[in-house]
Structure formats: C-alpha cells, structure tokens
Amino acid sequence: MKTTISTAAAMLVMGASLASAQQLAPSPTLDAVKARGHIECGVHLGLPGFSFADDKGEWTGLDVDYCKALAAAVLGDAKKVKFTPTSVQQRWPILQSGQVDLLSRNSTITFSRNASLGLNFQGINFYEGQTFIVRKSTNAKTAADLDGASVCVAAGSTEEKNASDWFLERNLKVTITNFQKNDDAIAAYDAGRCDAYTAGVGALAGQRAKLKVPGDHIILTQPISNDPQGPVTRWGDERWQLIVRWVLNGQIAAEMLGVTSANVDEMKASSKNSEVRRLLGVEGNFGAMMGLPNDWMYNVVKQVGNYGESFERTVGMGSALKLERGQNQLWTKGGLLFTPPFQ
Amino acid sequence: MTPATLPLWRRRLFGTPATGIVTLLLGLLLAWIAIPIIRWALVDATWMGSTREDCQAGGACWVFIRARFGQFMYGLYPVEERWRADLAGIAFVLGIAGVVFAPARLRLKAAIAMLVVLPPLGIWLLSGGFGLRHVETREWGGLMLTLFISVYASLIAIPLGILLALGRQSELRIVRLISVLFIEFWRGVPIIAVIFLASLLLPLILPGGIGIDRLARAVIGLGLVIAAYMAEAVRGGLQALPPGQREAATALGLTYWKATGLVILPQALRISLPAMTNEFIALVKNTTLVLVVSILDLLGIAQASLADPNWVGMNMEAYVFSGSIYWLICFALSRWSRHLETLGRRMHR
Fold first, then answer.
1. CA angle, corner B215, sides to B209 and B217, nearest 5?
2. Does B121 touch chain A (CB under 8 A)?
3. Is the CATH number 3.40.1440.10 carried by domain A130-225?
4. Could you report the per-residue pLDDT of B165-209, keeping only the tens digit for each?
5. ipTM rounded to 2 decimals
6. For A38, which of A51, A80, A218, B202 could close a Cys bridge (C-beta 3.0–4.6 Å)?
7. Chain A residue closest to B136 (CA)?
C-alpha cells in the first residue's frame, strides 16, 4: 500500500516537472552544478594568456574566461566556478571520470579524439595554428613572403616537418636551421641567426614577450596548419552539451551584434534588433528552453563580456601578449569566427 | 723557506710547482664559472620594484620573486587565512623541539603525545572546519604543500616501514610473505606511476559518490612507496644487531614486543638513521612528482607563475629560487641527521 502511494506520488511529481519544464531532457550535470553551487572547470596548469594564476592568485586567461561566462549563464554569477589545473596526461581521464564538468584547456579538436575518447568538442574558442614570428623590418606579411629566408626550429619537431613540407610544396627556398630544443631555436632567432621562428600562434605570443625587444617582432596571422581549440564535454547529457555550445556561440553573437559589457543594459532596454532581444532574453524564452534563466546571456555579457572583449583582455592588445585577432576575428571582418543565428 | 715551514694552506695548495699549477687552473675555472653567476644573481640583479619594467636587463629580476613570494610559500591559499599555515608550521616545530629537549624519561611519552596531537591539528588548521573557514586542498600550494606532503607521507612511511622491516624478519611465514610482497611490489613500481594510478585510475574505478581528496590520494601513494624503502633501511639496522641481543632480552623474560621496543629498535634505528634520512631527503625531492597530477607544490607553483604574461621568461629566477629552497631543506636535514648520529655515538659510549 505504502509503495503504491509513493510510486503514484513519484509519477505525479515527474509529470508535473515534465510539464513545467517543457519536456526538457534530463541533465545530471546541470542538476549537479546547481546543487553544488559552482561549476568545476578543468584548465591548463599554466599557459600565458589562456590560463594562469595572476599575482593575486586569481585564475585568468581566455580559456578561464569561457568558464566564467558559463558560470554567469548557468548560475548567474561569473565567480561561481572553481578551477582544476590539469596536466596534459590527466586532462581526458579527469573529464571522463566526472571530476570536472568540462575542460576549457586549449585542446585541439581532432577526428580521432572526438571519435574514440568519448568526448565532444563544443565549438571553437581559439583558432590555433602553426605560424611564424619575424622581425618587422623584414616586411613579411604571410608565410609565402619568406622565400629565401631562414627559419629556426627544434629538430624532429612537428613544426619542423610542417614547415619544410609547406615550403617544399610551394617551391619556396627556405633554409631550415635545426636546434636541439625549442628554447635554443628561439634564442638563436633572437640573436639574429635566422629570419623567423615557427610555433603555434598562442605559443608564439608567449615567446614574443620573452624576446629582448618584443615590439620589434610580428606574428604572421595566416597559419600554415589548423589546430582549432574549444571547450570539451563528456558524451551523454545532451542538454549540458547544448548549454556549453550556446554560451560560446552567444559570446560570439554578442560581439557580432555589437553588444558589449558597457552597453548591454542600454541594448537590453532599447534595442530594436530582434536577434539582440532574443539573445538578451527580452523576446522569446531561449534560456528556459535549456533550463536556464532567460537573462543567461545578459549575465554573460554583463559580467564577462563578449568574445572580443574577452580576447583583447586576455591575449590581445589589452594584455602583455599583444596578439592580433588574425583568424580569431569575426568572419565579417576577415577572420573565421562564426555562430549560427539565435533564432 | 722549506715547504714544512710554510703556513698550512700554502703548503697544501702550492706545495710543489705541480700542485701550484693545478691550484691556479682550478681557481681560474672556479672564477670563470662563479663570476658570471654572482654578477647575474647579485651584482646586476634588481631587488626593488613591482613590475618587470623595473628590472634591468642582464641581471636577475628578483622583483618577480617578491611579487609572487606569497604564492611560492602558500600557493593559492587565501591570503587572509595564511596565518593558519604559519601556526601549523610553528606547532610542528615546537612539538619536535619539545620532544628533543624533553628530559629523557619523558621523551617517549612526549613523542607519542605529539604523534597523536600534531597530525590532526595540522590538518584542522590547514583545511578548516570546526570554527575555521574551509579551505579546499586545491588552493594549497607552494612550500607549505611541499612540507605538508613530506611530513604526512613520512608519518605513513616511518611506522609502516618499521612494521614491515620487523615483519620481514618475523618467524611467522605468512607475516614474512606479506611483508616481502608489499615491499617488493612498492619498491618495484615507479613513484610517478603510483601517483598517476592514485589520481587517475582510482576515480574511474571507484563509484562516483566516493570522492577521496586528490591530495590525500597522492600523499598516501607516496607514503606507501617510501614505506617500502624505509623498511629496507630499517632492516639494515636490524640485521646489524648481533642475534645475542634478542636472545638475551628473551632470556630476561621480555615478550616479543617489549624486547623489540626496548632493546632491538632503539639500537637498530640508531644504526639505520643515516639511511632513513636519505630516504626522507629523497621523499622531499620526490614530492615534486605530484606536478604530473597538477598539484601545485613549490616547483609546480614556480612553473605555473611563469605562465603569467606579465612575468614570462623569468624561468631562471623561478627555478633558482625554488631550487635553493629545496637545497636548504635537504641540507638542513642532512646536518640534523649528522648531529643525531654524533649524539647517538656519544650516548653509546
């Protein structure tokens, strides 16, 4: 008798919650996050501009900013996120075993990772790719301008192979000078023994700050390889994946639509653009469709900013790294950043 | 002047033309190595300021260490709670001093009291609860964490190591077998593999609800490996004792545990003290391996702080500073064990 009553009660409760939540798919991760009161985010142990603890011990950086944005969207407070630094060996297991809700850790999206690790990549928050750093005086604008130049690389590295293949394919005469280690190669470049040094965009930004006169060097914005990076989630829990994906899209959309942390209140109150109104929760109920408050993106933009603000503050002109937007510019401005519409 | 009438140092360094040349060459070599280092670290170094712009090129930028000193010491531990770590440190130092300077007849009791009181007190102070704000272990770091791991891992390793060494000598075959298996297993696995296993595999195997703190897992893993090494160090001491000691103690009517506690161990531990100190020094340095599971000990925080774009390129400063602290700790430990040895020898006489 008792069991029948409790079963009936349970069914009633389930029915009621289904009706009120407009048949939302269950999301154990979101439920856990709400119960816990914070998001658990796996980040890099220390990568200049992307993830590091500053002098005050606060986690900062582009990847860190994304987690703060997610916290603002889900819990309404960008501070409700805790960071677990992860080494390269432990990053996948720590996500697979459920110790973190997501990874935002400059991990390159590849087919085999997506297909075999039980993980999904939820969009691209940084277009990483191998490129070159050259002295401004060389006037090189793209890698193709390096004909006749010499490039310092670490022997046997992926970068060495990529670079020599790329130049060979295009019939460019470029001398590749090998060094034992990356540090030796960059030191040789700084000392003027080569015209260029090659590595990923993000790594070069960090390396440039170590050179004697950082301002004399530029990083070529067109990479010769393609290593897009973005937040990673476990398989399963579609709704959580949806949230992770659309918070990133929302930050890009906000930049696209000109919504910034400075003007978001004004935009919310008076914008006539219906995509802006949907994004900020004035029109429609996009937040509720994912089980979030309707002002989810308002909180993100207000507290963290749009993608561009985040970029400039952490790796761009507002930071010590002074990285150009390059491919990480909106597609309307010559970059690759793109988001499906908020419709 | 004949060589014999020269001052001692001149006789030793410049006794014959050959030694004179060797002395000069070695002196030049030393100067060639030392002068640039001293210039970099002291003469051309910048001590005052708050940003990297304050630093002059060519010398060490100790400004970086100044700015990050708190993190090097305490990791990301909340600034307003750092007094708790200091207090825990002071409590441990006072506790050990209390045991060392206690009158001989009270020393054993004092040691046991400290062993019962200090470890829980330290954990309470650092992690909080019961009136103190809770500080998660992920915020612990720096020198504080290095010392924490060393002390707590050895609190597991030393008692367990002694028991294992005794077990290995036991007359009960099953005890002997278990001890040998344990020691050989943990001595055979690389420490780095143990730490990986503890931090990555355990959460995958254990059901989701059971969460053992990842620092605790690393400390226990390290403790078990070091216990196996300690056991071998203690066994050396046990084997150095003539069998007559135990036979005599048994003949006096002492039970196994009384004979072990009153006669065997005091002598055996004194003999194995240098070897045990070696293991402890190795442990202090092995704590850096927790870096592979992103626990920010002294070396970890040094590396992590290099990722701040405002300070990139301060590699030399970070490593020289953290390296010197490791060296100081290990040097102090080896001097202390030296001191204990001479003390023991004097008591023995």
1. 65
2. no
3. no
4. 999 988 899 999 999 999 999 999 999 899 888 887 777 777 655
5. 0.81
6. A80
7. A82
